[in-house]
Amino acid sequence: MTDQPPLAAQRAAWERWNAETREQRLGEVSTDQRDYVVAWLQRLGRTDLDIIDVGCGAGWLCPSLVNFGRVTGTDFSADVLARAQVRMPEVRFVAGDFMSLPFEASLIDVVVSLEVLSHVADQPAFVAKLAQLLRPSGMLMLATQNRPVLERLNRVPPPEPGAIRQWVDRDELNALLSPHFDVWELNAITPRANRFPWKLVSNNKVDKALKALFGEGPKRFKERLGWGWTLMTLARKRDL
Question: What is the pTM of this model?
Answer without folding.
Answer: 0.88
